[in-house]
Specification:
This protein is α/β, with parallel strands linked by helices. The chain has a single domain (11-16, 66-121, 140-331), classed as UDP-N-acetylmuramoyl-L-alanine:D-glutamate ligase (3-Layer(aba) Sandwich), CATH 3.40.1190. The protein has 13 helices and 14 strands. It has helices at residues 27-32, 50-57, 67-79, 95-106, 147-151, 153-161, 176-188, 200-205, 207-213, 224-233, 241-249, 298-310, 316-330, and strands at 11-14, 18-24, 39-42, 61-65, 85-92, 110-116, 123-129, 132-138, 164-168, 192-196, 219-223, 261-266, 269-275, 278-282. The chain has a nine-stranded mixed beta sheet, with helices on both faces. A five-stranded mixed beta sheet has the order 3-8-7-2-4. α3 (67-79) packs across α12 (298-310) and α12 (298-310) runs antiparallel to α13. It is globular, with a radius of gyration of 19 Å. It starts with 10 loop residues before the first strand and ends in a 15-residue tail after the last helix. One of its GO terms (biological process) is adenosine salvage. It catalyses: adenosine + ATP = AMP + ADP + H(+). Residues 30-339 form the Carbohydrate kinase PfkB domain. Keywords: ATP-binding, Host-virus interaction, Kinase, Magnesium, Nucleotide-binding, Purine salvage, Transferase.
């Protein structure tokens, strides 16, 4: 085992730091605001009253979230090496922003937030029914991230130091310029660049941005719904997740340093991994329905667990095992949270 200082800042994430406003709601509430379970969308006008209504009608929890930030925190938790991970994104100068900074720092992540003067810290409504979640993000300050922040020497130093990068697809809507700088740096320096399909709307409405960075992606993560949407948008005319995973892994690459690996989770069904034109399936850890609290953060936790072993250069099988372990922990708790120490070997 290499000494822990070799892991200093080895993994960098960039994304939208959001405060989750989470509650178990009812079908009527989902219908009223026209939201679907197992989906993630950006808030429109019609959704804005939702956040206050949730806190007046239901038992609301406030939990630090944001897809990439969740994954980075989970990787940090799994690694148990302080400062192994870093994260950048934009928050507001408010109590939510302060709470987020405290939370991420306590988790051991080296956070360099851009603090926006005008917009409040972004929030994400998490509506839970029967353990399944629907996400409605009001990006607010998270939408204000500027590539100028990334270019500052103290922030670019995090990019230089890292050897692995993870950016959720959600960041495509905010700062493609930042993604371009990081992905090009990774390609030029033989580092590992990874992204997530993240949501059907990203695959549909941010297709061009997603396609622009696909050649740089050494690992592509996603779930079965996102994979099927990706297939549909690209005119592949197949719903077969294994075939889709193979096709994604075979799309052109910017450099030949690493082959592309596609990793698709399917809830309780096996994880599909495609590389070299072949698929391997890995079963997840079974969980009884009564132990499921909510799926919020399950996919993020999977990526965090996976990356925690990838940075240690473990086998794909080990990476998937760690991902399954982390997501199994998170779905038994509210939001993307975890006990003090992992119990994974």
């Amino acid at each position: 085992m290499a000494s822990s200082n070799n892991y200093d800042g080895i993994l960098l994430g960039m994304g939208n730091p959001l405060l989750d406003i989470s509650a178990v709601v009812d079908e009527a509430f989902l219908t009223k605001y026209d939201v679907k379970l197992n989906n993630a969308i950006l808030a429109e006008e019609k959704h804005l009253p939702m956040y206050d209504e949730m806190s007046s009608k239901f038992n609301v929890e406030y939990i630090a979230g944001g897809a990439t930030q969740n994954s980075i925190k989970v990787a940090q938790w799994m690694l148990q090496i302080p400062g192994a991970t870093s994260y950048m994104g934009s928050i507001g100068k408010d109590k939510y922003g302060e709470a987020m900074k405290k939370d991420a720092t306590a988790a051991g992540v080296n956070v360099h937030y851009y603090e926006d003067e005008s917009a409040p810290t972004g929030t994400c409504g998490v509506c839970v029914v029967g353990g399944e979640r629907s996400l409605i993000a009001n990006l607010s300050a998270a939408n204000c991230y500027k590539v100028e922040h990334l270019k500052k020497p103290e922030n670019w130093a995090l990019v230089e130091k890292a050897k692995f990068y993870y950016i959720a697809g959600f960041f495509l809507t905010v700062s493609p310029e930042s993604i371009q700088l990081v992905s090009e740096h990774a390609a030029a320096n033989n580092k590992v660049f990874t992204m997530n399909l993240s949501a059907p709307f990203i695959c549909e409405f941010f297709k061009d941005a997603q396609e622009k960075f696909l050649p740089y992606m050494d690992f592509v993560f996603g779930n079965e719904t996102e994979a099927r949407t990706f297939s549909k948008v690209h005119g592949w005319e197949t719903e077969d997740v294994e075939q889709i995973a193979i096709k994604i892994s075979q799309l052109p690459k910017a450099t030949g340093t690493y082959k592309r690996t596609t990793v698709i989770t399917q809830g309780a069904d096996p994880v599909v991994v495609a590389e070299d034109g072949k698929v391997t399936k890995y079963p997840v850890i079974p969980l009884s329905k009564e132990k499921l609290v909510d799926t919020n953060g399950a996919g993020d936790a999977f990526v965090g667990g996976f990356m925690s072993q990838l940075v240690k250069e473990k086998s794909i099988e080990e990476c998937v095992k760690a991902g399954c372990y982390a997501s199994n922990v998170v779905i038994q708790r509210s939001g993307c949270t975890y006990p003090e120490k992992p119990d994974f070997n």
